[in-house]
Amino acid sequence: MKLDFESSKPIFLQIAEGIEDAILSGAFPEGQQIPSITELSASYKINPATALKGINLLVDEDIVYKKRGVGMFVNNGATEKLQQIRRDQFYDSYIASLVEEAKRLGLTAEDIKNMIERGFNK
């Protein structure tokens, strides 16, 4: 995970997204422990409260859970849940505006499909 201290995106969000990415890639399988707040803050030289805020986002979304005195672990079903969240975000961020613009340009669904296939074949 790499943090961009120059980004306008808050560090705690970058922490949460970095852990989400690691879960989706299989680096942190379901049931496995993730780095502790102390490990994150030491590794990235950030305030522990910042790391905690990022982890708490994942706890609130039921992606990770706390085992008192042991650490934080990836919840069962977290991968599927994250995939669905990311799919919904992908639709909202990209597809909805793409379809809107396609309609303004008079493009059909088939035209868009062909363009997407062309992009995948590059």
UniProtKB/TrEMBL annotation:
Could you list this entry's UniProt keywords, alphabetically sorted.
DNA-binding, Transcription, Transcription regulation
Annotated InterPro entries: Tscrpt_reg_HTH_GntR, WH-like_DNA-bd_sf, WH_DNA-bd_sf
> What parts of the sequence cross the membrane?
none
- Would the keyword Ligase turn up in this protein's UniProt record? no
UniProt xrefs under PROSITE patterns:
HTH_GNTR
Q: Which GO terms describe its molecular function?
A: DNA binding; DNA-binding transcription factor activity
The record places domain HTH gntR-type at 9-77
Superkingdom of this protein's organism: Bacteria
Return any one Pfam family short name: GntR
Q: What PANTHER family does the record point to?
A: GNTR-FAMILY TRANSCRIPTIONAL REGULATOR, HTH-TYPE TRANSCRIPTIONAL REPRESSOR YTRA
Name of this protein: GntR family transcriptional regulator
Organism per entry: Hominibacterium faecale
Species lineage:
Bacteria, Bacillati, Bacillota, Clostridia, Peptostreptococcales
